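REQUEST FORM: STRUCTURE PREDICTION
Request ID: SP-0412
Submitted by: Lab K.M.
Chain count: 1
Length (residues): 330
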Amino acid sequence: MPRLRTRFTELLGIEHPVVQGGMMWVGRAELAAAVSEAGGLGILTALTQPTPADLAREIERTRKLTEKPFGVNLTILPTITPPPYDEYRRAIVDSGVTIVETAGSSPEPHMEFFDRHGVRLIHKCTSIRHAVKAERLGVAAVSIDGFECAGHPGEDDIPGLVLIPAAAEALTIPFIASGGLCDGRGLAAALVLGADGVNMGTRFLCSTEAPIAGAVKRRIVEASELDTRLIFRELRNTARVARNSVSEEVVRILAAGGTFPDVQPLVAGGRGRRVFEDGDTEAGIWSVGLSQGLIHDVAPAGELVRRIVAEARDTIEGVTELFAGGPPRS
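STATUS: Completed
RESULT:
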């Protein structure tokens, strides 16, 4: 398949501008390597690994599966007991990884270290103002996350159809789009709207290599775009998760005036991890995006990358034919 070249692929030395989202508990060696081997950019999730030493071992495992570029996600969130971010940073650099995706809080505290070691930073944002700030800080690229996404969409509620072209107008560095994108039509649309590529999480949850229970994958395939819930709205920490008995209970408690301690046992990370490991989709909250309504199968990650790129090409060619006076494709 011919390369799909954009500013983003040229920046990172990859073949196609398709990035596998850095998902907690999911971004492991087999999945990241499969995406990279097919020409996309696979992403390991640093904090999925219990310690920096474990991350170094996971990076080495990935290298044994592919010689192509891959990255590491480092999500920076305020917690009671923060992870040893400096040690995770050091593990990334000492392992020779030169592509890092940051998300959550500002990447500023990490910029100098990564710059000094030649790491190209992609920062994930949910708003134009944060994207502009990230560019000003010196990141190499931005991932702009629309309201349709899984996980934390921010508090502005701006969907990709507006957010992507707004980012194209505001930024001069390469940027990729995420949220609601799962196929070649989405990639084509993102490119036309001004993005340099796409980041897909939910689509790669439904890949053969994703290290989650088959029951979760089947649930995503069977679900529609209506089967998510926005929780923590009242706390100004909105998260999009699967609609189940737990997320419904969280919404009910907070809508009735509850506070975070009232729902904390329901949203514990260990419960969400059990969903992925045991396949009990009612065990806790778990992130999934609106794009699940467009996902109809579980397939190898490499096949998905190739399918997405081929479909994007066909979609763009089909639209071009309309301007040439040809009949619309059925």
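NOTES: The chain has two domains: 7-212+296-316, 224-287.
Reviewed by: T.R.
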